[in-house]
Design goal:
Shape: globular
Structural class: alpha+beta
Number of helices: 6
Order of helices and strands: HHEEEEEEEEEHHHEH
Strand order of the largest sheet: 2-3-9-8-5-6
CATH topology of the domain at 61-205 and 279-299: Immunoglobulin-like
Length: about 300
Amino acid sequence: MTPSRLSPIVALGLLALGSLSTIATPSSAQSRPRRSRVKFVMPRLTYDRGAPSKRSEGGSRNNFCDSPVGPTALTPQYSETRRSSDGTPLFDMAGNPRQQHFVLTQTSEPQPTFALHMPLAKQDVADLKLNLFVVDQAGNEVYDLPIPVPSQAGIITFKPDRNQAALEEGQRYNWAIEIEFACTDNDLAMPKYGTLQGQIERQALFQENTLMSHEGYAIAAAEKGFWPDAMATVADLHRQDRSDEQHIADWTALLDSIGLEALSTAPLSENTLLLQPQSIQASRAGTSGTARPRGSSSRLFPVR
């Protein structure tokens, strides 16, 4: 029995249906979420177990006014199980291993970029001051710079301006972001303090000068474990077009890689703040600089 032929009308109808399905396929593909091009790889760094490490302050009124979460430094941290002097793992009352965290990263930048999530802005509290401190391993001060307080809650990025000292390649430094705040007018006489702390070391990202796009630089920095470099570049790309799905995917994946994906939708500052010493800021504002009534950086970083 020979196969029957389709009539011209039926054949045209089937051809039209096939064309419609072909047209629909790319449309459905475009609706899929973008895949991140940036994959951060935690570098194998030897952390100093005696160095202060803390990337987040707790929330609640006792810690940071009425905020359910506290300020958080956007930086990687390593975790390991606490052990006794003989190497035996330690457990909590629920039988879970007790964890200790180490905040450590590397950068190729002479003046590194930091990022901070502030759940509250200046208008949300009676008073708020931020300061960046960096010292070398001998306890010598490298930076003591005030950070402009954000006008809205969210993520700010900041770095010492190019006139400030450069970190030396191959050297490790201790950093701290100190937060001084008063929740209400009644607290102004006795403000509270919170401190985020970690370590950063400067290393070469490339062995020689390399020309590449901003996207390529972010990808390379992330793959080599240079968090500040990758973070600053991805943040700048995200700022250029905040609705760009690729930039959103890269920013979200980058924060997710260090356990902070929940902060990826927080407002991001318009640009990276360039920090200058208090005396320079005061002279430009037409006021005299005064020493802050707080402790020196030596109380933040015990020198052994």
